[in-house]
Design a protein that fits this description.
Elements lengths: L5 E5 L3 H13 L3 E5 L2 H10 L5 E5 L7 H10 L8 E5 L4 H6 L5 E4 L4 H11 L2
Helix pairs in contact: 2-3
Length: 122
């Protein structure tokens, strides 16, 4: 059964962000969204710790890499689970050392994403 815990979706493409939000909501998750890393940090300042962050890497304003670096500096947020989403499969190796729980390559299968979220949203 899906969790009702909070999942933060950080994605600059509004269509992808909306699809993920709708899919996760239908799967029983409470979903927060942000369109870049800076906005995601602002969201995290206002809410309790999410159980999982779905993080795009290539975004304007603040990239996923910069967001992840800042997230890991915050003592109250350093253990938040992060699932990366990117069209660039090469970044998977780079990001593995950042404590991420998984990687989803765009374009992705919605069922695969929901399965990964259910597995890691604890």
């Amino acid at each position: 059964m899906a969790s009702s815990r909070v999942v933060l979706v950080v994605e600059d493409d509004p269509d992808i962000r909306e699809v993920l939000e709708e899919m996760l909501d239908a799967g029983g998750h409470r979903v927060l969204t942000a369109s870049n890393g800076r906005e995601a940090l602002d969201v995290l300042d206002r809410v309790a710790r999410p159980c999982l962050v779905l993080l795009d890497l290539m975004m304007p304003v603040m990239s996923g890499f910069a967001f992840l670096e800042e997230l890991r500096r915050r003592p109250d947020r350093e253990r938040v689970s992060v699932l990366l989403i990117s069209a660039n499969a090469q970044v998977e190796q780079t990001a593995r050392g950042s404590g991420v729980v998984g990687f989803v390559k765009k374009p992705f299968d919605l069922d695969d994403v929901l399965s990964l979220v259910d597995r890691h949203a604890k």
